[in-house]
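Holo model, magnesium ion. Inputs:
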Amino acid sequence: MISRKDKLLGGMWGLLVGDAAGVPYEFHSDDEIALLDYIDIIPPKNFERSHNSVKAGTWSDDGAQALCLLDSLIYCGKLELQDFAERLLKWYEEGYFAVDENVFDVGIQTAESLRAFRNGMSPEKSGMIRINGKGNGSLMRVLPLALWHKGSDEELVEDAHKQSLVTHGHTCNQVCCAIYCLLSRKILNGLDISEGYAEAVKSLRNIYSKYPKFEEELEWSIRPDENAVGHGDGYVVDCLRSAIMVLKENDTYEKVIKAAISLGNDTDTTAAVAGGIAGIKYGVQSIPQKWMKIMRGKDLVEDVFEKLIK
Ligand SMILES: [Mg+2]
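Output:
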């Protein structure tokens, strides 16, 4: 039996470790990764690492932004978009919650949106700077909302939508964040991945029966009845599908992360998105000790994690 505390810590560490494990493999194709002898948090010696100057065990933008969200939720006691956007901007400009205050791997749309926010645009609107922007930048950081939230499914969905607005305002991004939060909640409550996904979709359909624009996006872009097949891309729907696919096909935290990375492309984000849920499901103890040992920035998260599990 995995305690709730171990599931919550598993979610947060699962995201951070997945992100860090994926960083060196980012931008490589699945063909290139398939040639490797093994995938690990430290890549094989002959492998041409992305972000070469970044030490193993360092989370990237995914982890830092998720920590900004958790920090803001705990500080405000609710989702306060202005506060959250300020923390994201502080990450972007000063390296808040970035290991060594080193900001790398910033998404184009995220950078544009945060600059617009800095220049006076409201955080409800800044994510529409690219009207059709459908990158995975708000999905990759949303997990803490599901871990922290005490409200109804409908309230969780509303907040999942809202947190996306700062950088990714399109309905498609909002729906992906909503479904991911509901799935995380179902896993936290003990369901397995397939059951949890079915229950999340059922709950979301029920909520969206009042919101045709969101319902249409769910049915036509996400297509929850189709078997999830993903390619580890930066497109938000592909990212969600990739995560669900590797979560369904693998039965340990380590296998989920390796499968996510083996898809290639946006490896750190796929591994962060899948890793968060794998961490909830299998608990913090399931994360390989040798990976936890390598993780950097532990002092940055101690306080905020303590408050999450309190
Ligand atoms: Mg990243």
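Residues 4-309 form a domain with the ADP-ribosylglycohydrolase fold fold (CATH 1.10.4080.10). The pocket of magnesium ion is lined by residues 60-62, 105, 268-269 (CB under 6 Å).
Archived with the compound record.
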